[in-house]
Design a protein that fits this description.
Number of domains: 5
Structural class: alpha+beta
Distance between the termini: 82 Å
CATH class of the largest domain: Mainly Alpha
Largest sheet: 6 strands, mixed
Shape: globular
CATH architecture of the largest domain: Orthogonal Bundle
């Protein structure tokens, strides 16, 4: 048995049973034989890496199965051993853990990003089955970061960036603070090899200069707590390099300003003692208003609990104090790994982690691909939070910057999908309003309402983003099938046919030739504008039949309620009453233009597979955007006069801008919503007769 294993086994004896230690040693022997002849980049035998990973986990007091998985974690990937063989030797649980940590073999993807995303997705989903997967992976990544120096600079930077983007936030999300801090500092040194030594040296100098002051403050705090009869430990709290760098960068502060703050942790025996200690601290030094936070009553999303306060000490020195119990201290450092052996179901960190993992499964169901899933997970890993209340007083934890739409989806997916408005602290508020801690939010929903694609521009949470995308995708699919049916029916009308009347044998034959499994898939492709309906109609028409000329009344009608697959060109802004033409655009469905639009060139306009004549339905009840150009003599009150005429004629002004063309002349660009061409003509007529207006024109392409 090697000296390294002997020391490792000796440490395991402090908390594991002898039979469990024997199983761990058996896994070590198996791994050493499997990796025989393999070496690390620095020349060490490969087994030193799995042993180091297991040692990291042992110091977190992880269970023996986690240690076995750590020792075996590269066996499937780097040797000829299969998961089934591991299961026979060490049991299904250990084999599943190793498989969860192992990268996917020979992933068929187009890019490195997709391969990385697929591997991360697999690991995340394995984590939802057993959280020990991610704890083993974090220990693996930590040791790899500790030994990063032997790699080429480019690879070092790539691995460090991935660690900073995914693994450090993951450690934070799971409450594993010590792992997060070390990962961030190691990433900082790899990504910024010039800046890191400078900050490290500055921290060392500042620590020496601050030593006497730190000890004086610590003794003062300890003495006051002892006088009040409160058993406690007072510990100095040092900022780590990456944290200092980010505060300098984000808050635009100098190094000396950040280091001027003195941090301490007060560790006591009970929750009651935490609040007593807070009172003692506030009695000793004056608290700075607005700097108190109670994470005991409202824990962070990762289960972190503590009281935070900032005091103004002697000579105005700011003192940051965190007050917590011994259990909270252990949880703050190790998170879900804290007290793993006790299987404590009441452990806040583990309960929060299980809740988060449940949300990962929901994300997996609604994500379109691995890249989208990982994008959503990254959004979910941001640490800053706000705490808001439902009307019934329930607290919801949301990422900083969340909006009422994020809140609605946090309550329930159906609430988010049917959300139309929101009240914040009893007042109607925009759905894009960023929420603040302590606000009460009420969602107003309506049956039949649906998510707006515009919401994707401001929602913060991954759950909201994934649900909106999923709903819109489903909507687009059903709408494209419906539109495709209408377009194909229109094309088949030239043969006096409809889709429903096409013989099933002919339909099956054409679907097979075109590579579609069913009719809906073909109709969806037509509705999305990827396939010309006329070409499909020719193949579905009975043999020998010819196209017949049909009158213009057979043009497909536009109702204004077609949804995502029918859009209106911004270049010419068509209105009901205009002659219109539809352009089949791949992936977008039909884009409607005025038939005089300059953007539709002659070759495109004359191609029946790309453009089709359309007509407006006689029953349209929605409004459409339009734009007017108004030339006038520059007089006081002209804008108000124009706005009054528009409002009097029952139209909404969306945007108005004015540009001077000389000392006496100006041009106004007016964007407004109108019902149809007649409605717009009435508004133009009213504006033209205003005193000072020289010319009013509707903006064309």
């Amino acid at each position: 048995m090697s000296a390294g294993l002997a020391g490792f086994s000796e440490y395991l004896a402090t908390y594991l049973k002898p039979e469990q230690i024997a199983e761990v040693e058996s896994a070590y022997v198996f791994s050493r034989i499997a990796h025989e002849g393999q070496f690390r980049r620095n020349g060490d035998p490969y087994i030193t890496h799995p042993l180091a990973v297991a040692d990291i986990l042992a110091h977190m007091h992880m269970d023996h199965q986690s240690l076995m998985a750590a020792l075996l974690h590269d066996v499937i990937e780097d040797t000829g051993v299969s998961k089934e063989e591991l299961g026979k030797h060490f049991g299904v649980d250990v084999a599943d853990l190793v498989d969860g940590v192992t990268k996917l073999a020979k992933v068929r993807t187009q890019t490195k990003a997709e391969a990385q995303a697929e591997n991360l997705r697999k690991m995340m989903l394995a984590m939802t089955q057993d959280i020990r997967v991610i704890i083993v992976k974090l220990a693996d990544r930590l040791h790899n970061m500790r030994t990063l120096d032997v790699l080429a600079p480019e690879k070092r930077r790539r691995i460090a960036q991935e660690t900073l983007d995914i693994y450090a936030p993951l450690a934070n999300r799971l409450g594993m603070n010590q792992v997060r801090i070390e990962l961030e500092d190691l990433c900082f040194e790899a990504l910024f090899p010039m800046r890191a030594p400078l900050i490290r040296k500055a921290v060392r100098v500042a620590r020496g200069n601050r030593k006497d002051m730190l000890e004086t403050i610590r003794q003062t705090l300890e003495q006051r707590l002892r006088q009040e009869g409160l058993a406690s430990r007072v510990l100095g709290r040092e900022k780590h390099m990456y944290s200092i760098y980010m505060k300098m960068k984000e808050k635009q502060k100098s190094f000396s300003e950040i280091m001027d703050v003195y941090g301490f942790r007060v560790v006591v025996e009970s929750v009651d003692a935490c609040y007593r200690a807070l009172g003692i601290m506030h009695n000793l030094y004056k608290p700075i208003p607005g700097k108190f936070k109670d994470y005991i009553a409202i824990p962070k999303a990762n289960g972190y609990q503590s009281l935070h306060t900032v005091l103004k000490g002697q000579r105005g020195v700011p003192i940051e104090i965190q007050i917590r119990t011994e259990a909270m201290e252990s949880m703050a450092n190790n998170g879900v790994a804290a007290h793993w052996l006790y299987k404590d179901t009441g452990n806040t960190s583990q309960a929060r982690a299980r809740e988060w993992m449940k949300s990962l499964l929901e994300l997996q169901k609604s994500a379109g691909n691995s890249l989208e899933f990982i994008e959503n997970v990254k959004i979910d890993l941001f640490p800053d939070e706000v705490y808001v209340f439902t009307p019934k007083g329930t607290i919801l934890t949301l990422p900083k910057g969340s909006t009422p739409v994020d809140f609605a989806y946090a309550v329930h997916s159906d609430v988010g999908n049917s959300c139309v408005a929101a009240r914040v602290d009893g007042r109607l508020a925009p759905l894009s309003l960023p929420l603040l801690t302590g606000q009460t939010v009420e969602v107003i929903s309506a049956p039949g309402a649906m998510p707006n694609p515009h919401w994707l521009n401001f929602v913060i949470t991954s759950k909201a983003r994934a649900n909106i995308r999923s709903y819109l995708k489903d909507q687009q699919q059903s709408q494209s099938v419906d539109l495709g049916r209408r377009l194909l029916d229109k094309a088949l009308s030239a043969y006096a046919l409809k889709v429903a009347a096409v013989p099933s044998s002919l339909l099956t034959q054409v679907l097979g030739e075109l590579g579609f499994d069913n009719l809906d898939s073909l109709l969806e492709d037509i509705g999305l504008g990827n396939r010309a309906p006329q070409l499909v109609a020719r193949r579905l028409a009975p043999e020998g039949s010819r196209e017949q000329n049909r009158p213009a009344s057979r043009h497909m009608a536009i109702h204004g309620t077609e949804g995502l697959l029918v859009s209106y060109a911004r270049c010419c802004r068509p209105l009901p009453g205009d002659s219109i033409i539809g352009h089949l655009s791949a992936g977008r469905g039909i884009v409607i233009h005025r038939d005089i639009c300059n953007n539709l060139v002659a070759e495109l306009r004359d191609n029946p597979d790309k453009c089709m004549p359309l007509q407006w339905s006689e029953t349209i009840e929605r409004e459409f955007p339009s734009e007017l150009r108004i030339e006038l003599t520059n007089q006081r009150g002209m804008l108000a006069e124009i706005a009054r005429e528009v409002t009097a004629n029952d139209a909404n002004i969306e945007n108005i801008s004015m540009q001077e063309k000389g000392p006496q002349h100006a041009v106004i660009s007016l964007n407004l919503s109108v019902r149809d061409r007649v409605h717009l003509a009435r508004i133009i007529k009213r504006i033209r007769i205003l005193n000072g207006v020289e010319k009013v024109t509707r903006v064309r392409a």
